[in-house]
């Protein structure tokens, strides 16, 4: 099994309505840019519709399709990680199945990479189809993240990007389970260049990132790249500790020089404020401890059920061995080697 010039990695979850158009447009874009020297890795993330059957059929019809079926739903970032682990390309395009990120941008992105970029990341100038609430919260999140983290993570970007094997090798050596891949790629460094584009509306189906998953991804981004929330907890403890100390002096002064009156309202207010801050601090600490607990288990990041290439069953381990054996350039080998 030889390496290829380009791998397009696409995580898919309940995307039966988008898959035919995705296959057509992405295949056309890959052929236009790379001729016959490409592969498309479609990862089924435990879909509950006909997604896997369609991916499997495409792999039989087209030798360029690598069909990967995960044993269960692992989530978008883990599904993407499994595709990145298994792909063989010297250059890797990361794109979602909903066609909000146009596959036709591949060729101009390759031109930017040919000028010396190691990563070409899509930066959204417009978000067509998104409701006002999502636009506002997304903009606020990226700016909050910029203030909290030490890593320079570009604003208004998703996972849509093109990177070379050198950058992917660094990414694959990062073992964390709570993954925020766009931040991990930014942390890796190298020459990263923005590619402005207008994001289209979703082609079909509904978003796989409702509010709950967006909040979870936001937590992964913040806790994965910053310890400032822990420092914030300490600051809040100092601030309210100082307020409590002033309240003690105030209470003593009232008792010494003025007639004391039972202040149920003020007492309950102070108790509620201090209790809320304590719970907030414990919650922040618990969030980090919980993630450390998950990481300490060292369970596999994902479980692959099946890999089908050209209609032929393969195995995950054989795929990895063949991929690594095809790499002869030291820049394309894993850093551990």
UniProtKB/TrEMBL annotation:
The keyword Transmembrane helix applies. It holds the Pfam family Glycos_transf_2. It is a multi-pass membrane protein. It comes from the Bacteria. Keywords: Cell membrane, Glycosyltransferase, Membrane, Transferase, Transmembrane, Transmembrane helix. Residues 7-169 form the Glycosyltransferase 2-like domain. One of its GO terms (molecular function) is glycosyltransferase activity. One of its GO terms (cellular component) is plasma membrane. Its main location: membrane. The chain crosses the membrane at residues 235-258, 264-289. The keyword NAD does not apply. It is found in: Cell membrane. PANTHER family: PROPHAGE BACTOPRENOL GLUCOSYL TRANSFERASE HOMOLOG, UNDECAPRENYL-PHOSPHATE 4-DEOXY-4-FORMAMIDO-L-ARABINOSE TRANSFERASE-RELATED. Belongs to the glycosyltransferase 2 family. GtrB subfamily. This is Glycosyltransferase. It comes from Candidatus Rhodobacter oscarellae.
């Amino acid at each position: 099994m030889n390496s290829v010039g380009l791998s397009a990695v696409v995580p898919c979850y309940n995307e039966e309505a988008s898959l035919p158009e995705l296959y057509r447009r992405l295949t056309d874009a890959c052929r236009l840019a790379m001729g016959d020297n490409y592969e498309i890795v479609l990862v089924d993330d435990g879909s509950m519709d006909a997604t896997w059957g369609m991916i499997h059929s495409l792999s039989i019809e087209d030798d360029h399709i690598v069909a990967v079926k995960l044993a269960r739903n692992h989530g978008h970032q883990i599904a993407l990680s499994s595709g990145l682990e298994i792909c063989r390309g010297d250059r890797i395009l990361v794109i979602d199945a909903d066609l909000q990120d146009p596959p036709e941008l591949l060729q101009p992105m390759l031109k930017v990479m040919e000028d010396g970029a190691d990563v070409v990341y899509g930066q959204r100038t417009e978000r067509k189809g998104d409701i006002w609430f999502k636009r506002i919260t997304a903009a606020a999140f990226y700016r909050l993240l910029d203030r909290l983290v030490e890593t320079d993570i570009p604003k208004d970007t998703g996972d849509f990007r093109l990177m070379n094997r050198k950058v992917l090798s660094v990414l694959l050596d990062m073992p964390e389970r709570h993954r925020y891949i766009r931040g991990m790629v930014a942390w890796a460094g190298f020459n990263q260049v923005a590619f402005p584009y207008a994001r289209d509306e979703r082609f079909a189906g509904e978003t796989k990132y409702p509010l709950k998953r967006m909040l979870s991804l936001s937590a992964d981004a913040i806790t994965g790249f910053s310890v400032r929330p822990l420092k914030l907890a300490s600051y809040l403890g100092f601030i309210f500790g100082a307020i409590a100390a002033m309240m003690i002096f105030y209470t003593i002064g009232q008792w010494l020089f003025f007639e004391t009156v039972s202040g149920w309202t003020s007492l309950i207010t102070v108790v509620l404020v201090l209790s809320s801050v304590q719970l907030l601090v414990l919650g922040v600490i618990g969030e980090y401890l919980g993630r450390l607990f998950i990481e300490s288990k060292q369970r596999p990041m994902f479980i692959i059920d099946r890999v089908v290439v050209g209609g032929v069953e393969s195995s995950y381990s054989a795929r990895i061995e063949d991929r690594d054996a095809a790499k002869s350039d030291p820049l394309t080998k894993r850093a551990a080697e």
